[in-house]
Amino acid sequence: MTATMPDTHLTGQMLIAGEPVRGSGKQIRAFAPTAGRELEPAYSYGDASHVDAASTAAANAFADYRATTSVQRARFLEAIADNIEAVKDALVERAVAESGLPQARIAGEVGRTTGQLRLFAGVLREGGWNGARIDPALPERTPLPRPDIRQRSIPVGPVAVFGASNFPLAFSVAGGDTASALAAGCPVVVKGHDAHPGTSELVGRAISDAVASSGLPAGTFSLLFGYGPDLGVALVTDPRIKAVGFTGSRSAGMALVTAAASRPEPIPVYAEMSSINPVFLLDGALSSRAAEIGTASVNSLTMGSG
């Protein structure tokens, strides 16, 4: 029997609870920096109705998904990794085109992404992640008896994840934020980054296919595209979203932090935002190896920028 090859044709659609959905807003296309041209297909932004649909599906999936065992979730994460590897060639080709990053860098990032997923699967199987603690009752304790006390970590609910621009795979649709949320038992709604929509669609479909093949609720995963101040804020302020994972600029990150904190029920935003790292150039070094330092400085500023 011949194995069925995964479909890598891009549709330009979002994914809401496993269903392809075309947005109704502004159209965007990825830009190939090395070729100097836009790439097909066009992707249309979603709006508040798509946020509502994805958040509703995630909330409806939460009770069943959180009830899965650690082993079930481990197998799910491994299925995602397997699906990503099954489309690796197409994924690398598209990510290289959209980012301008070299093929070796993107191929390595595929491995990092699948490695993260399998790492979390291993943590799930090990079992210590939930911090379970049991203090048995001491009915004879004086001056007062102690009741049975039990503690463990539990999933908070649906999580919104924002893909990063500079890591189209490892910090994006199936990156560390998504992997950790899914491992914990939280459905995920991802806002894909405009810089690599085709890469995001391929990975999003790999996750959705794993949701279906694992017998999980369809709302366990959704992928949206949209304008940050509109769709992004709408996602963070939706009452069904209970936490946020973000990698990106300080301005965008702080806008999400402010939006999350202003809710009637504030929620945590786990944000990795840009930083400024000071560099000190001493007179002795400049006088002896100025050209070398200049070359290294330029390389450090342009490395990984595509």
Describe this structure as you would to a colleague.
The chain has 306 residues and is of the alpha/beta class. 46% of the residues lie in helices and 14% in strands. It contains nine helices and 13 strands. It has helices at residues 48-66, 70-86, 88-99, 103-126, 176-184, 197-213, 228-237, 250-261, 283-302, and strands spanning 14-16, 19-21, 27-28, 31-32, 37-38, 43-44, 133-135, 149-151, 159-162, 188-191, 221-224, 243-248, 269-273. The strands form four sheets. A seven-stranded mixed beta sheet has the order 2-1-11-10-9-12-13, with helices on both faces. Strand 10, helix 6 and strand 11 (221-224) form a beta-alpha-beta unit. Helix 2 (70-86) packs across helix 6 (197-213) and helix 3 runs antiparallel to helix 6 (197-213). The longest helix is centred in the middle third of the chain and has 24 residues, at 103-126. It is globular. The relative contact order is 0.16.
